[in-house]
Specification:
By secondary structure, this protein is of the alpha/beta class. 43% of the residues lie in helices and 17% in strands. Helix 2 (52-61) links the parallel strand 3 (46-47) and strand 4 (64-67).
Length: 158
């Protein structure tokens, strides 16, 4: 409920001209913040969560789901629930983004991570964020990123 109210209040603040919002948690009237976001009607909002209520909120209010790493079967089921909630709210489920984090564990080869990325794409992921632990070190992390990029057919920019 707090997140719902916050998103509604932000949406009103990002509208052109003075805005108002009154709820039991938040109240303002005549607010004209600036500068307004470049993205209209507002910047994309991705929410995270795993519970039924959180997934329903993603489908009903957000532009996408920022999913934590988990087994593909669990992820697919939760993504399906988000899409159902969007449809029930009269929103286009295909307009939602699925963003998933993949942790590059020590010893995870590029081909194994590429397999994970492809499986996530099959589920519907529009973006995959590769993350490494802080103890890996910059050179090792860059090496892992390069190995994964090569395995999935990406080329470095620059």
């Amino acid at each position: 409920v707090l997140v719902d109210d916050l998103l509604t209040a932000l949406g009103r603040c990002w509208a052109a001209g003075p805005s108002a919002h009154h709820s039991h948690r938040t109240s303002f009237d005549g607010v004209a913040p600036g500068p307004l976001p470049v993205q209209q009607p507002r910047p994309p909002i991705l929410l995270t969560g795993r519970t039924e209520a959180q997934l329903e909120r993603v489908g009903r209010l957000a532009d996408g789901w920022h999913a934590a790493p988990e087994a593909p079967g669990d992820l697919a089921g939760r993504w399906h629930r988000v899409r159902q909630a969007a449809d029930a709210a009269g929103r286009d489920p295909d307009a939602l983004a699925l963003v998933v984090r993949v942790r590059l564990d020590d010893g995870a080869g590029g081909s194994e991570v590429a397999r994970q990325v492809r499986a996530l794409e099959d589920i519907g992921a529009s973006e995959v964020i590769l993350e490494v632990g802080v103890d890996v070190g910059l050179d090792a992390a860059l090496g892992q990123f390069a190995e994964v990029a090569e395995a999935v057919g990406l080329q470095a920019i620059g």
